Amino acid sequence: MAPTLTPNQPPPTPTPVLKPGTSYTHAWQRCLAVAPEAFRDDRVLNLWGAAWQTDGRTLPATTPVDGTPIAGAPRLDGTTAQRAVRAALDQHRAWRHVPLPERRARIAATLDSLAEHRELLALLLVWEIGKPWRLALADVDRAIDGVRWYVDGIEPMLAGRAPLDGPVSNIASWNYPMSVLVHALLVQALAGNAVIAKTPTDGGVACLTLASALAAREGVPVTLVGGSGGELNRALVRAPEIGCVSFVGGRGAGAAVATAVADLGKRHILEQEGLNTWGIWGFSDWPQLTALIPKLFDYGKQRCTAYPRFVVQRSLFDSFLAAYLPAVATVRVGHPLAVTDPGDPPPELDFGPLINAAKAKELTDQVAEAVDRGAVPLHRGRPDEARFLPGQDTSAYVRPVTLLNPPPSSPLHHAEPFGPVDTIVLVDTEAELLAAMNASNGALVATLSTDDPATYGRLAPQIRAFKTGHGRPRSRGDRDELFGGFGASWRGAFVGGELLVRAVTRGPAGERLPGNFPEYQLMP
Known about the structure:
Elements lengths: L16 E2 L5 H11 L11 E3 L2 E3 L3 E2 L2 E2 L6 E2 L3 E2 L2 H18 L4 H17 L1 H12 L3 H26 L3 E2 L4 E5 L4 H14 L4 E4 L6 H13 L4 E4 L3 H10 L5 E6 L1 H14 L2 E6 L4 E4 L5 H7 L16 E5 L3 H12 L9 E2 L17 H16 L3 E5 L20 E4 L6 H4 L6 E7 L2 H8 L5 E7 L3 H7 L5 E6 L19 E4 L4 H6 L1 E2 L8 E2 L4 E2 L2
Parallel strand pairs: 9-10, 9-12, 10-11, 12-13, 14-15, 14-20, 15-19, 18-19, 20-21
Antiparallel strand pairs: 1-16, 2-3, 4-7, 5-6, 8-23, 13-22, 17-18, 22-24, 24-25
């Protein structure tokens, strides 16, 4: 019997349910059906020597979405990883002689297969790394569309160039398995190289395994191995068989890779974190900023091109807050697959969980410590139970937080939080503005909001970021857009467009690639 409502009493809020057909178990069964060679009942396999291997010790893993168990990466020991690298060299020596039309055909067939299984790949991203459905689909689509651009236009990019002497080794963070890692793998293979990928420790193993299986079926020479960075470093970074090392991750792990490749004189592409900043100076178009703020929280700012720091002219601080606070209050956080009606599409969210509960606790502790040491909390997002399943584990979820003036002793003052925490620093002069925007010794992107084009033209070149936007966010980019970083945010060759192909091929003798190298820096 339906409950009786008294006059003016709102109807009860429906209890959220998991959207039918989207459970992790359902996704796993689909993987077993699509690629039985790569999946077993309870684990994924490593791919090396052109075969799926049952080696490696699998550690327990859980999904950040609700803390339930999922498949973890099978971790190889260093000796087995070295065997995998030697096998990849054999594949490389054969693949580099495959005619370009055939390489293009195999990569194109791989893209068709990825497109066929687009929604399954996206569903795996939801469960493994907590991406909302919209962003998970976008990650898959960017990989497919981006590589198609290279397939269609690769001939002039390879004119006068040859594959490297050994395979390309890829060590990437967990946040963009498709649009960064799979995209890079397929372009590197299109250019004539065998490719090796290390499965990120924190997530993405099933998605990458499925993508690798689809590529391997088309004869693309892919190696996919799991393991700890310390255990596999000698094989994936230092091995003489490796022709190039491509790394995406934090500065701590990146420093060890940078030292190794510098000592060995090895071709390298090292994308590292930087504190990307957004400056506000002589600005008045506040409705424009208000509209942009929620978009800056996509995926909980777990992106290398996120903007976690606003540097604001003190005289504009009241206007900034009037534009910022209502916008940040609209940011939507919740379970990526919780719906109120089974027929509803997955919810429209800005972000779901962080990558794991440990990261959520670390970030929450950093915020508390910063406040204890003098930072002023301006905003704390409130939980909305209507966006979660009843009784689910929410330990990996962090609501948006905004702090004014984090103390210099706090990591939030000088480092990228990689989570939904904004910090604001107030400045009075242009010199202070530039010093605050350059706090991390180089960044990937930055933005300066100012009404005066001349002011932008004068200040933007002094901001130490590879890309600087005028009132608009900058991103990694796709297709012909170049990408790199200044200072400690990047080491080695720049990428994007034809630069990605140049970075993983040999050109004329004495060629100096655009990039940030110990001995020189060359802009495109």
